[in-house]
Amino acid sequence: MFTLEKRPSPSQFWIWATPVLAVALTMLAGGGLFALLGKNPVDAIRTIFWDPLFGEFAFYLRGQLLVKAGPLILIAVGLSLGFRAGIWNIGAEGQYIMGAIFGAGVGLAMFPTESRWIFPVMIVAGAFGGWLWAMIPAILKTRFNTNEILVSLMLVYVAQTILSKAATGFLRNPEGMGFPGSRNFSSFPAARNTDLIAGSGMHWGVVAAFITVIAAYVLLQRHILGFQIKLAGQAPRAARFAGVAPTRLVVMCLGISGALAGLAGMFEVTGPAGQVTIDFASGYGFTAIIVAFLGRLNPLGILLAGLVMALTYVGGEMASTNLGLPSAAIQAFQGMLLFFLLAVDLLSNYRIRFLKGRAV
Amino acid sequence: MNRRTLMASAAIGLTLAFGGTAHAQGMDKVKACFVYVGPVGDGGWTYQHEQGRLALQAEFGDKVDASTYQENVPEGADAARVLTQMALGGCNIIFTTSFGFMDATNEVAGKFPNVKFEHATGFKRDHENVSSYNARFYEGRAVQGVIAGMMTESNKIGYIGSFPIPEVIMGINAYYLAAKEVNPDVELSVVWAYTWFDPAKEADAAKAMIEQGVDVVAAHTDSTAPLAEAAKTPGVIGFGQASDMTAYKPSPRVSSIIDNWAPYYIERVGQLLDGTYEQADTWAGIKDGEVEIGEITEAVPAEVKAAAEKMRDDIAAGTHHPFTGPINKKDGTVWLAEGETAPDGDLLGMSFFVEGITADIPK
User: Fold this and answer.
1) Which residues of A touch B84 (CB under 8 A)?
2) Which chain B residues have any C-beta within 8 angstroms of a chain A C-beta?
3) Which of B322, B317, B311, B255 is nearest to B288 (CA)?
4) Maximum average pLDDT range among A337-341, B20-24, B313-317
5) CB neighbours of B244 closer than 8 A, spacing ≥ 6?
6) Which residues in chain A are contacts of B7 at CB distance < 8 A?
7) Do the Cβ atoms of B91 and B33 come closer than 8 Å?
8) With helix as H, strand as E and coil as C, how does B74-115 read?
9) Do B124 and B102 touch, CB atoms closer than 8 A?
10) Of A345, A188, A117, A155, the residue nearest A262 (C-alpha)
11) Shortest CA distance to A136 belongs to which of A127, A148, A124?
12) B78, B82, B201: which to substitute to probe chain A, counting the most A Cβ within 10 Å?
């Protein structure tokens, strides 16, 4: 009946139309799922996509969208640089955890000193922690040609173990009656990442995310490193001829994404999370991979994708509490988004040709 | 109306709605909401809280709206948002049913002084509208310890710990002390799962212990996975945790600890309705019916059953305390002298194993 034919170059139209189409298809299929569960599909979709933005409690939920989207965007922008160059950092979750531990550790070591310099030092420490954790796969790859996908992923589990050690041991709150978890940053103003305008959700991590989006955009459009990243991804051989040093590129891409993930962890632990706990890591590092692809590895696209992803979380929670949808249905709904994106992505690389005449 | 006016009106609305009026004289209708750490179908911890919610609804009918709950809420930043949404959505009393919701509960409670917050298994009550409730699970653990100590053939018994927090540590200690009392040769292995609900991890932990020769597996996690794993090896037994887990009767599930939250939920919401509600810190046990021992099956010999039931009845009668001296800490220092019983404060902050346990608490 029809056949798929590879396009000579990806369709510019479909590159940008597929994410929109994927969101639309997710709404349709999700609506069907909710209808099968006996809920009004229009209500459910409106609760997820409309109410957090314009509903009764939007004044609170809009801020929460920023809180949720901030770390996703920050991490995803970093990842997208590597992904464009064919360098696959899958372990952002681990770098996020290490950034949180380093940042929080430096801050807690200075408790209860009140100085305006504490927070900037913690920011540097957080970025350093994430960078350090990303340097392990970077060095192993450039020295011994190991696979960075495996190494960075395995290091997530190492980081999680260190996190539980931190929460139950070396960062544990000495006044916490033996309970695991560090001192809460709400009792340590100098090291606290508060809302810049109370109740707005706009904390330093969100600001950093916006700055990163702009910086990455400029980097890719104007800077030689951005050019090299794009070239290495599209034509690795040509890149070599053009003088791109693969080693340097691997170290740069993993280093930048690690540092950004570390920053996200540091802002999260001192802000919304408030303390180092055993289950501090809630999957931002993995979700950011979806966000990076949903945003077409483009900084501005990632900004939008991060907000849409945050919307499905915040709205999904609303639907779950207000409409009594099981949380598994919400998770399936979020999964559909990635599924449809990957499925319709076919359209940007292939065109459908209908075969005339005989049916096969 | 421009955006700034909108924001201002919202802020004022918030203050008006949740700032001023106090309802000391009771209420006509209460909206009770629940936050769960796992899915309602976990067959254990969250399932029992869900049963409590359903019982609450059935008890009061039209006077209570207990239809709002949220499952699978992560312990951390997300919990605060869920709680705020519930408070904004008009909940009068919110039950947060996991230890890790403690800081979020107190944080949100500070912003909504007219909403009552009830936190399970924690110790922080930073505001007047926060109450804590807990059950003396360690009493049930002592009963299980008797069964474990008498039933084990290999003298190796195991315990899947969730997180190294006092509630779990005191359960492990009570289990071990009771087992050792009836079987001085018993050895205890502890595996930390670092999760409340993750059937795959829980099953792995059970499997690892069974492979090391453990033949009695107790778990302080929320799913039925450890029992499902125990069922694969003949001769290995375990216990229902939080819920009766009758599907695994008569073996491997030879008994169980059942958390019965319904009476507490009904009592607290009832107090809110009639105006007698006050901040509280409740810790009820076998005597009060909050901790129940599930049927001890025929897979257990009669004398074991009798010994376990005696332990249960002695605890209920108040004639026996599972932590009665002499008990030393693992490092050899004295904790309780001869005949001394553990003060509640020691138990609630317990961060050490008792002498004889070879496993370590992660530091």
Assistant:
1) 60
2) 6-7, 10-11, 33, 39-40, 67-72, 74-78, 80-82, 84-86, 88-89, 100, 103, 107, 123, 163-166, 194-195, 348-351, 361-363
3) B317
4) B313-317
5) B256, B258, B294, B295
6) 59
7) yes
8) CCCHHHHHHHHHHHHCCCCEEEECCHHHHHHHHHHHHHCCCC
9) yes
10) A155
11) A148
12) B78
Task: Find the angle CA(B39)-CA(B41)-CA(B47) to the nearest 5 degrees.
Answer: 85
The residues spanned by each domain of chain B are 24-136+261-284, 137-259+290-348
The tokens for A337 are: 């988004």
Asked if B96 contacts B35 with a C-beta cutoff of 8 angstroms, the reply is yes
Q: Both ends of chain A: CA-CA distance in Å?
A: 6
Q: What ipTM does the predicted assembly reach? A: 0.78
CA proximity to A155, closest of A135, A176, A173: A135
Contact between A284 and A101 under an 8 Å Cβ cutoff? The reply is no
Burial grade of B359 (CB within 10 A; 0-12, 13-18, 19 or more)? middle
Whose CA is closest to A133, among A279, A254, A264, A275? Answer: A254
Question: Are domains B24-136+261-284 and B137-259+290-348 of this chain identical in fold?
Answer: yes
CB of A5 within 8 A of CB of A320? no
| DSSP state string for B158-182 | EEEESS-SHHHHHHHHHHHHHHHHH
User: Which overall architecture, per CATH, does domain B24-136+261-284 show?
Assistant: 3-Layer(aba) Sandwich (3.40)
Q: Which long-range contacts (CB under 8 A, 24 or more apart) does B106-112 make?
A: B106/B130, B107/A186, B107/A274, B107/B80, B108/B80, B108/B83, B108/B84, B111/B18, B111/B84, B111/B87, B112/B18, B112/B84, B112/B87
Closest CA to A270 of A128, A108, A92, A114: A108
CB contact under 8 A, B85 and A164: no
| Global confidence as pTM | 0.82
Contact residues for B82 (Cβ-Cβ < 8 A; gap 6+): A317, A321, B35, B70, B73
Which SS3 state, helix, strand or coil, does residue B24 take? coil
B168 Cβ contact list (under 8 Å, min separation 6) = B161, B162, B220
H-run or E-run covering B131: strand B130-135
Residue B24: its pLDDT value, please? 55
User: Using CA atoms, how far apart are residues A117 and B233, in angstroms rounded to an integer?
Assistant: 60
Name the token pair of A243: 């003088």
Among 3.30.830.10, 3.90.180.10, 3.50.30.30, 3.40.50.2300, name the CATH number for the domain at B137-259+290-348.
3.40.50.2300
* Domain range annotation of chain A: 63-290
DSSP three-state, residue B126: coil
- What are the Cα distances from residue A252, in Å, to A33, A89, B123, B229? 44, 12, 47, 47
Residue type, B42: D
Residue B28 corresponds to which tokens in the numbers above?
């006509």
For residue B61 the two structure tokens come to 């009918």
Tell me the per-residue pLDDT of A144-153, one tens digit each, with 9 for 90 and over.
999 999 999 9
The helix (run of H) or strand (run of E) holding residue B262 is helix B262-274
Least confident of A341-355, B154-168, B192-206, B287-301: A341-355
Chain A CB contacts of B67 under 8 Å are: 324
**If you average pLDDT over residues B225-244, what whole number do you get?**
92
